[in-house]
Amino acid sequence: MSWSGGKDSAFALWHLMNDTRFEVNRLHTTFGEESRRVGMHGIHESLAEQQAKSIGLPLDKIYYPASGDNKEYEKAINTYLDTLKAEGIETIAYGDIYLEDLKAYREQQLSKRGFNAIFPLWKKDTAQAARDFIAAGFQTLICAADADLITKKWLGKIFNLDFLENLPDQVDPCGENGEFHTFCYDGPLFKVPIKVSTREVLSKSYHFTTTEGKKIEKQFWFADLGY
C-alpha cells in the first residue's frame, strides 16, 4: 500500500483489509532524502513509523533527493519495485479518488515493470467519502494546506464535519486537488492511537511553472506535528 499517512490512504487501506480478495502485507512511503518528511504533507518519518507500528504492518521507506526532478523519484521507485518483485509482490494500492492523469501515470509506470495498480476509492463521491471516513471512526488532523484556500486556524485541527461545512465551495471535500493534507492518528486500523500534538504552524512558499510557462508562487501552511 502506498502510504502517505493521510485520510485517503488510511481509508483505502481499511477497505482493502476488509476485502477477502486482498492481503496487504506492507506499506511504503516516500520521504525527502534530507528532510525525512512526506512531500507536501510535511510529516516526519518518525510519525509514519508510529502509524505502521500501530497498524501492525512493516513500513518500507523510500528516499529521493529534494532537488531531484521526477527522474530521481522514478529511479527510487524502480529500485523499490525490484525489492517487491523479489518477494513475489506485484500489486500496489493507492488512495487516489478521481485524478485521471495521476492514475494513468501510476498504471503506466507500474505496467512497465509487470506490476498492477489498484484504487479502492476510485470514483467515489468525495463529499460522501469524507463523511463515511469520519463516520467509520477515523481521527485525522489537518497537517498542510494551500494558504489561498484554507485559513491558518484549521492547521493542526481535526478533520471533522465542522471543517467540511466551512470549506470554500471551490475546495474538494477530500482535498483531491492538493488543497489540504491530513495525518491519521486513530481509527479502526489502529491498535493504539498515535499521541500527536501541534508544536507550531509554519508558512512556506513554493515556486511553480504552469504548463503555459507562467511562473507563480504559492504559500502553504504546515502544522509541525510531534509526539
Describe the protein in words.
With 227 residues, the protein is α/β, with parallel strands linked by helices. The strands form 4 sheets. The protein has a 4-stranded antiparallel β-sheet with strand order 8-7-10-9, with no helix packed on it. The model has no long low-confidence stretch (mean pLDDT 94).
Structural class: alpha/beta
Radius of gyration using CA atoms only: 17 Å
How many beta-strand elements?
10
CATH topology: Rossmann fold
Q: Strand order, main sheet: write it out.
A: 8-7-10-9
Shape verdict: globular
Low-pLDDT ranges? none
Helix/strand order: HEEEHEHEHEHEHEEE
Helix content: 25-40%
- The count of domains is 1
Termini Cα gap: 24 Å
> How many alpha or pi helices?
6
Mean pLDDT: 94
Q: Tell me, what is the CATH class?
A: Alpha Beta
CATH architecture annotation name: 3-Layer(aba) Sandwich
What percentage of amino acids are in beta strands? 25-35%
Sheet with the most strands? 4 strands, antiparallel
| Annotated CATH homologous superfamily | HUPs
Domain Diphthamide synthase: 3-202
Organism: Belliella pelovolcani
Pfam families: Diphthami_syn_2 (PF01902)
Protein name: MJ0570-related uncharacterized domain-containing protein
